[in-house]
Amino acid sequence: MLAEAFSQLVQGVPADPEARLVIEFVFADPLAPDTVEARIRAALPAVEVAVRTAFEGETDRFHFATFAGIVSEGREALAFEFARALRPAIGALEANPVLTDSLYGAAAIGAGDAESFASLCETPRENTMPLGWVHPLIRTPEAWQDSTGSGVTVAVIDTGHSTHQELAGAIRQQGQRNFVEGGTDASDRFVSGFLKHPGHGTLVCSVIASRGGADASGGVSGPGAITGSAPEATILPIRAIASVISFRQDTVAPAIAHAINEGADVIAMALGGPTRVAATEWALRQAVDRGLVVVCAAGNCWPKVVFPAAYATNRLCTAVAALNRTLTPWDKTGSGPEVTISAPGVNVWGAAKNKASDPDHGIRAAQGTTLATSLTAGAAALWVARHGGRAALRQKAAAAGTTVQAMFVHCLTQGLVPPPVWGGSGKLGAGLLDTARLLANPLPSGTEAPPAADLPDPGVLPSLAVLQDHLANHDPEALSEVGPEMADYAAEVIWLSHRAAARARAAETEGVAESIVSPDPVSPGLAANLAGKPALRAVLRQP
After folding, report:
1. E-strand spans in 412-529?
2. Which pLDDT score, from 0 to 100, does residue 197 have?
3. What is the C-alpha to C-alpha distance for residues 295 and 283, in angstroms, rounded to an integer?
4. 250 DSSP assignment
5. N or C: less crowded end of the chain, CB within 10 Å?
6. pLDDT at 93
7. What is the C-alpha to C-alpha distance for residues 31 and 318, in angstroms, rounded to an integer?
8. For the chain, what is the radius of gyration of the CA atoms?
9. CATH code, 117-448
10. Domain residue spans of the chain
11. Is 171 within 8 Å of 235 (Cβ atoms)?
């Protein structure tokens, strides 16, 4: 079975260095990469493979294996089948492909070409709003009376940073890291081309920590043209991806670990996709254990909340959805029970530098859950500073039997009321981000803010449990059809569920071609297991 799956996957596939198949292996005990490689070669003597630990140590329970000459994109069903066949042969608990991801669902399903993509995952821009219009709405001018984020470090895991006047005085040079090209320079390399998004990290950094102030009418005071929600916080840029539209999550876990090791207090991740990566969950658990606050984007054009934001259900992060200026949901926002809070995400001003030759003073009104996430990450920095820093908060959390992350979510959501324009929706979190309320709410004690559940080794949920959470949140009618027999298929089902929902949304709202609406192929093993599961087949849009 393994040899056959391998043979089918490698037939006629060119060796594209950026698209080679990557599989995450999870083991019960720490192993060296050489040991994992030897096990793979013993099972498949002809294979070309390179294995690395997820967290750069000599041994690990999490490993990423890159298979030379095998491309997974467009052949995902075969990749899942191959990973499943390889798992028992090397003694792994789990083996799942790490697929090409995107924060933008329209890009991930191929809904549009280079010219039409922007219109598929955006709404009309409006550049007439005051540069600081968002601040009175989320009440940052009031919050700044108590905290401006001074002394707090926000790690921005993204495409990196650039020279830009909106980032003057905000960027920490020491401790930067580049997981794309390597080294300690996290500058954005402005990689261009279809489905690339250079400058995204600069945008995020500016919305969090551009220096200045704002008044009750949305007017902004310098030194730049805009003001971040935490105008005295420090940004630690970590370049983990070259593009927020097309990337793999195998760099996200070590980036989180690096942020922890460098003493970050808050992590902002305006990235994501439908791929379940266990190492990312493990990294989030370590961040929460060390007292960090993690803020993640719910996703653009994905109807369901993407990873890593989806781990908010497990109290491992804060998931943020995007709103229009009128507080109505942005048409393209990801949503669901995982969402913690919503924040403005349309026509929010930020730094604009998309190629090296662009001026260092450009700004634009941008949109997406990226902006909502950045504003909320800044709010987290205000909150951490307000309570004396992460170390002090960690002590208070330990005394209360909880985590700093859980305390933050409690203060963020306590007393909020969803706007009437949501129509009673429970998919956009507790309400609109209110920074003044966040800082005014007292820290919780006792059972008011329960922590994430403890887990036995290897310290992460089985993918089957992640699938069951996913279905409970979005498709409960299919939950009863998923039992232990689906354990090896869980990651594939999660991925297909997100993709099917994105295709359905594209068909309903964008009128895309029928070829885009048709479902992704499923692996032969999953196809056999879907027999007698009509509700699950419906979720995956399978006949």
Report:
1. none
2. 67
3. 14
4. G
5. C
6. 98
7. 32
8. 22
9. 3.40.50.200
10. 2-97, 117-448, 468-539
11. yes
**Secondary structure of residue 88 in the 3-state scheme:** helix
Residue with tokens 């005014």: 440
Token pair of 99 as six digits: 């697929």
What is the rounded distance in angstroms from the CA atom of residue 349 to the CA atom of residue 368? Answer: 12
Is residue 194 scored above 60 in pLDDT?
no
Rounded mean pLDDT of 327-343? 97
Contacts of 398 (CB under 8 A, 6+ apart): none
Angle between helix 490-509 and helix 76-90 axes, rounded to 10 deg? 170
Angstrom distance (rounded) from CA 23 to CA 249: 11
pLDDT at residue number 114: 44
Two structure tokens written together for 68: 């030379």
The rounded distance, in Å, linking the Cα atoms of 488 and 492 is 9
Measured distance CA(350)–CA(113) in Å, rounded:
26
Angle between helices 404-413 and 278-289 (to 10 degrees): 90
247: tokens are 């990337």
Distance CA 122, CA 87 (A): 40
- Report the C-alpha dihedral over residues 315, 321, 326, 330, rounded to 10 degrees: -160
Q: Which two tokens stand for residue 426?
A: 């429970």
What is the pLDDT at residue 119?
57
pTM over 0.85: yes
pLDDT, tens only, 114-126 = 444 545 677 777 7
User: Could you give the CA distance from residue 426 to residue 321 in angstroms, rounded to a whole number?
Assistant: 12
